[in-house]
Amino acid sequence: MTKENLETLLSKHPANKKDGLLPILQEIQTEHGFLTDELLAEVGRYINMPVNKVYGVAAFYDQFRFKPLGRFHIQLCRGTACHLHGSSTYLGELEKQLKVKAGGTSRDRRYSLELVNCMGACESSPVLRVNDTFYPHTTPEELTRIIRSLKEITV
Ligand code: FES
């Protein structure tokens, strides 16, 4: 995110107002993909809040990321309905096959894996999403197929 982009984004919010923290962080993440120490420091200066408090608020909410997403961002639902339909067994397979830990990004930045609480599609559980593609009623066989196809895509 360029300095100019950040200044433009911040200028839409009143300076020295701590109420603007969450929307500012959300907008930065939407634009930049994740939050950095430098961006958090700039936000703190703008709203007049110590950077450690800005970081504390950001770290409190699951929605904020501090690492870049992978080329393929995988969201696995761990909500109750999906859990009851076996999604918890999928986590280990994704981590092992794609060499990425939950909440992290693979070293080559090809994959990132996020656990989400509910995607609002419980009737289609278990569900997972890869970038914009939603996979309802995912079976273990389908998970294997999804993983294989991700590995085969050359980018
Ligand atoms: S629990 Fe997975 S979509 Fe609701």
Can you tell me about this structure?
This protein is of the alpha+beta class and 155 residues long. The protein has 2 domains: 3-60, NADH-quinone oxidoreductase subunit E (Arc Repressor Mutant, subunit A, Orthogonal Bundle); 72-152, 3-Layer(aba) Sandwich (Glutaredoxin). It is 46% helix and 12% strand. It is built from 7 helices and 4 strands. Strands 2-1-3-4 form a 4-stranded mixed beta sheet, with helices on one face. A hairpin with a 2-residue loop joins strand 3 (128-130) and strand 4 (133-135). Helix 2 (21-32) packs antiparallel against helix 3 (37-47) and helix 3 crosses helix 4 (51-60). The longest helix has 13 residues, at 140-152. The protein binds FE2/S2 (inorganic) cluster. FE2/S2 (inorganic) cluster binds next to helix 5.
Give a concise summary.
The chain is of the alpha+beta class. It folds into two domains: 3-60, Orthogonal Bundle (Arc Repressor Mutant, subunit A); 72-152, Glutaredoxin, CATH 3.40.30. The chain has helices at residues 3-11, 21-32, 37-47, 51-60, 80-84, 88-98, 140-152, and strands at residues 72-77, 111-116, 128-130, 133-135.
